[in-house]
Amino acid sequence: MKVITCKDYETMSQKAADDVAQDLREKPGLVLGLATGSSPLGIYRCLADLVRQESISCSRATGFQLDEYCGLTPDHPQSFHHYLKEHLLNVTDFREEHLHGLNGTATDWKSACISYEEQISAAGGIDLLILGLGQTGHIGFNEPDNVFPVHTHRVKLEKETIRSNARFFDSPEQVPRAALTMGIGTIMGARKIILLVNGRGKAGILKDVLTGSVKPQIPASILRFHQNVTVYADEEAMSAVTEEK
Length: 245
Ligand code: F6R
Description:
The protein is α/β, with parallel strands linked by helices. About 35% of the residues lie in helices and about 20% in strands. The protein has eight helices and ten strands. It has helices spanning about 10-25, 40-50, 80-90, 110-120, 160-165, 185-190, 205-210, 240-245, and strands at about 1-5, 30-35, 60-65, 65-70, 100, 130, 155, 180, 190-195, 230-235. The strands form two sheets. A seven-stranded parallel sheet has the order 1-10-9-6-2-3-5. Helix 7 (about 205-210) links the parallel strand 9 and strand 10. The two termini are about 20 Å apart. The mean pLDDT is about 95. Bound molecules: fructose -6-phosphate. Fructose -6-phosphate binds near residues 35 and 37.
């Protein structure tokens, strides 16, 4: 696992975006896995700048959403589809028909999850997956558990995750209680992974991920077994690791 410590959020976002941009130049038809939330906002902003400067193009890239809330339609302002529309599709040349989403309103969610795995396989697998780290140690919405869930599946969200994500809603009651997410196996199947972590609030969990045991109670710790992961973290997020040295 390569860890790149950056001065602040902006530097972290720029460095990670340069990494993605390089891959896009080498393979314009790159298959991306796309996280939402606060962590990747900067990377999407930087990619939009690079597209505007005609330094890269996303027009041939394909995207797979990492996860989606259950019960929200794609046009709901807090759905992850809506987020990607706002922060990627509307500001770059990424084509809407190239973005695959999980159907959070599917009643037959099991079939929706199986079909998602098939879509990823049909696209040739994920080349580059962009992840954030949850306060609980989750990646995607794979919450702490006694096992690592393998495939795309439905999860009940942890209280802490609901509390943390309430900042995007008018009230905590509005945060969906369940989500569909790529599984740990789906994530580990990506050929390359970028994990973005910023802020002092993530310092403790990032230290656990980087230096604790690899176990499903800390889902992101499994990334230590992946061949090609780069963690881009700001100094605040790295503080618990660096202060110990
Ligand atoms: C989002 C996702 C989550 C977030 C994580 C961190 O698609 O799957 O795992 O990456 O909860 O969220 P932020 O970046 O908002 O701190």
